[in-house]
Amino acid sequence: MEQELMTAEEIRQLIEEKRFSELKAYLMETNPADIAEVLNDELSKEQYMMLYRLLPKELAAEVFVDLDTDRQEMLIRAFSDAELKAVLDEMYLDDTVDIIEEMPATVVRRILETCDSRDRKIINTLLKYPKDSAGSIMTPEYICLKADWTVEESFELIRRVAIDKETIYTCYVTDKKRVLIGLVTAKMLLLADRDAIIGDIMEDNVIAVPTAEDQEIVAQMFDKYDFLALPVVDGENRLVGIITVDDVIDVMHDEIEEDFAKMNAIVASEKPYLKTTVFELWKNRMPWLLLLMFTATFTGMIISSFESALAAQAVLTAFIPMLMGTGGNSGSQSSVTIIRGLSVGEVEFSDWLTVVWKEIRVAVLCGVTLAVGTFIKIMLVDNLILQSGITPLVAVVVCLTMCVTVFCAKIIGCVLPILAKKVGFDPAVMASPFITTIVDAVSLIVYFQIASMVLGI
Amino acid sequence: MEQELMTAEEIRQLIEEKRFSELKAYLMETNPADIAEVLNDELSKEQYMMLYRLLPKELAAEVFVDLDTDRQEMLIRAFSDAELKAVLDEMYLDDTVDIIEEMPATVVRRILETCDSRDRKIINTLLKYPKDSAGSIMTPEYICLKADWTVEESFELIRRVAIDKETIYTCYVTDKKRVLIGLVTAKMLLLADRDAIIGDIMEDNVIAVPTAEDQEIVAQMFDKYDFLALPVVDGENRLVGIITVDDVIDVMHDEIEEDFAKMNAIVASEKPYLKTTVFELWKNRMPWLLLLMFTATFTGMIISSFESALAAQAVLTAFIPMLMGTGGNSGSQSSVTIIRGLSVGEVEFSDWLTVVWKEIRVAVLCGVTLAVGTFIKIMLVDNLILQSGITPLVAVVVCLTMCVTVFCAKIIGCVLPILAKKVGFDPAVMASPFITTIVDAVSLIVYFQIASMVLGI
After folding, report:
1. Residue in A434, A1, A410 with CA at minimum distance from that of residue B210
2. Which alpha helices (H) appear in A296-391, and where do they start and end?
3. What is this structure's pTM?
4. Are β-strands B180-185 and B209-210 bridged in parallel, bridged antiparallel, or unpaired?
5. Which DSSP symbol is given to A430?
């Protein structure tokens, strides 16, 4: 059954010993994604080309699509025109477009010159759709049936064109003007009589998306409806392409990684970590670090303006990290919950009142619990065990601050992402680091105000 | 084509005016996921049952699967035995198992009593697989062919059993002992001659997973190989079930939300935010907040032990939030990058040396950049604009601390998740809040040590 995968080492050895027929036999039995993984990793350029040239045309194209961008570029530059054309002919057009988008201009020119003129036209159209839109991830290679065909006729067409189509399991029905009027699945076709008419058996209530739809919404729809494919239509409801579930999984993957990066003050990049250079990592991480460092000027100013109070009650300083830390954690709990809710469509802008009211109640509960916890901690740990001699009044100041800070943090944490969404920003930016910076300032102001009032300093 | 969705308001009105045939016609044309959305939301129990009973059996079961757990429970309790049996008969067994896992014991008993004995046996087997394993998300309802059948015979079987199978697009071939020996896709069958033998056309190199495989690995395999379905085998390589792509999308969804929660100090829950009660939110958020609050005792102790130094140079206090904040952000950038890399399989434990060496270089670059940035900021903003009168020596202390803190933060941020993975913890817990707490303490120690040395206090 399932065969063992060879390591790059074993493959290198086969190449060096020129045991090509053995190697070819192995490759023919191996999944393209696994071949790509070896090719991405550990071979010299010559071994790499050697191995690639052993692959039969169709498999070669499948492997090519799975390669890293820099490997693809190297191959394209090494290919003869005939080799490049062979790969391009085997590839689905949406994959070609994905590759073109990552290539330098000279390589793009070479690809476009090698395509036949019909493909070139389609590619140019696809390239014009905005990044992250349904149009940019769809493929024009779908199966299109007519309503007056029989099931038998449809099967004939499917058999004839299947090889070039990204999926044959969902077929779309269009009228003379290419307007989408229905769909039939391969299952429906298989279960129907051979002479049934497509128009009679088709599902005529087709869920479709416009070309401009955000790919995140497309991913939500696949999640909700369990589709294998989703049709994409233009402004006149004409079918222009389809999006298949495997492409959507890639989209989900990219969107999630982008969110994780943004929510942790990193400029998002699509490169895997181990392939990213030190300089690129530095470039992705510095902007937010510098910005957040500058904004911390405010917290410094707040502390400076209470310098005399801190001098009078030096013990107050010791609680600053705990208050700021707990405030930041409380705020990021709320913000991440709302950001994710917005991102998967569970929370809408119109829910803002429900969200704020819920967070207010959670904030009160959390604030009070933490204040009580802090009081117990100060009395037991700080005073009893560590003998810090913290006066009850100072403890009250700290606990009151804890309560108010947590409350403010949770409200800020839930309001900012919703506001961001409303004004068209990505709510993900309103996550932990951003919230923490604001909450830091708020907690200090609250702390010093309460300290002034209670301790009279 | 695509029809407008009715609002809950419009549906309520149809029910109240008893326009049932109109309502039924609408429901028949509507996607089950959209019907479930309305049922989840806004109807009274009576309206809810009324609407549900209008649905034909098959559609009713599809809607049922998409409902929220509390709605499902309500329905099961309201169903007659015959109604419950009708729904269970239409449902796929893996969905039944998912529902059973969420229900209280009395409801589970009722479900199991209503199933026929064959289904009950299968359900009980499925329930025994550990949570989050391949076995727990697979379905036993797949299409199984024999190697000596013809394509024609296979199509006959498919037509006969299709209605009960979760997918007909990937069919598996087993020998007499149920050992998995190959697969054919519906596409392969359609393109083959009617009298071709399955054993000749099947793909005999089948990638499968054992029942105990982690569902996260399963999700990674779908992402890598673009499968529509993946077979699950027992210890003797016998086929016991399949996992379909729509179920894997749900798994991805759950795993991601769990990671987001964990990485932000929240106890993960599968309930959507708007359905979670205030008390549940409080319960999910408090444990980590309390724990992190207690651990902040250390930062307090560090500050207390340098009280006299801070009294001598009160200006030092003002930079504490900036140093801790930047340290925390730097550390969480590294940790989230590594956590994600580990989670999607881009980074393995064996890469630890590469990772640490890369992070060391990034850390030096980031540390130096931030130190220089801080120096410029202190000179321009604090001294020139705000007239804070910070001495060059203090500025040097702050900048040196910045450099060392960022360096330590990045190393801690990359090492902890890798270590966690090695000892079998979930690396996600080593994210922002946890790292921040450690980095807070580290940055304070570094700060005061450098201050003592440079300023001689």
Report:
1. A1
2. 297-305, 307-312, 315-318, 320-343, 352-377
3. 0.82
4. unpaired
5. G
Cβ–Cβ gap A366/B1 under 8 Å: no
- Judging contacts by C-beta atoms under 8 Å, the chain A residues touching residue B282 are 362, 365-366, 369
DSSP element (H, E) containing A63: helix A57-66
Measure B334 CA to nearest chain A CA, in Å: 9
Do B112 and B165 lie in one domain? The reply is no
What confidence tens digit (pLDDT) does each residue in A412-444 have? 999 999 999 888 888 887 877 888 889 999 999
Question: Do residues B235 and B164 share a domain?
Answer: yes
- Which domain covers residue A87, as residue numbers? 8-128
Q: Give the pLDDT score at A2.
A: 54
- Spatial CA neighbour of A107 closest among A64, A77, A69: A77
Residue B144 three-state SS: strand
B41 and B161 in a single domain? The answer is: no
β-pairing verdict for B229-233 and B209-210: parallel
B33: closest CA among B58, B64, B11? B64
Would you call B443 an interface residue with chain A, using a CB distance cutoff of 8 Å? Answer: no
Among candidate residues B212, B247, B282, the one where a domain is terminated: B247
A179 touches chain B (CB under 8 A): yes
CB-based contact, B74 to chain A, within 8 Å: no
- Domain CATH number, residue A376: 1.10.357.20
Asked if residue A446 is part of any domain, the answer here is: yes
Q: Domain end: B216, B232, B247, which one?
A: B247
Reply yes or no on whether the pLDDT at B3 is more than 70.
no
- Which residues in chain A come in under a pLDDT of 50? 1
User: pLDDT grade, residue B1 (50/70/90)?
Assistant: very low
Distance from CA of B210 to the nearest CA of A (A): 12
Task: Please give, rounded to a whole number of angstroms, the shortest distance from the CA of A82 to a CA of chain B.
Answer: 28
User: DSSP secondary-structure letter at B227?
Assistant: -
Distances (CA, A) of B257 to A344, B254, B277: 10, 5, 18
Q: Are A373 and B292 in contact (CB under 8 A)?
A: no
Q: Please spell the DSSP secondary structure of B186-218, one letter per residue.
A: HHHHHHS-TT-BHHHHSB-----EETTSBHHHH
Do A330 and B285 count as a contact with CB atoms less than 8 A apart?
A: yes
Indicate if B99 and B174 belong to the same structural domain.
no
Q: Cα–Cα distance between B37 and A224 in angstroms, integer? A: 10
Answer whether A274 sits within 8 Å of B351, measured CB to CB.
yes
**Across residues B339-365, what is the average pLDDT?**
91
Q: Is B261 left (phi over 0), alpha (psi -120 to 50) or beta?
A: alpha
On whether residue B264 sits in a domain, the answer given is no
Looking at the structure, tell me whether residues B18 and B112 fall in a common domain.
Answer: yes
Same-domain pairing of B100 and B150: no
B330, A256: Cβ pair inside 8 Å?
Answer: no
Cβ contact B266–A382 (<8 Å): no
Query: What is the per-residue pLDDT across B178-199, written as a single tens digit (0 to 9) for each?
Result: 999 999 999 999 999 999 999 9
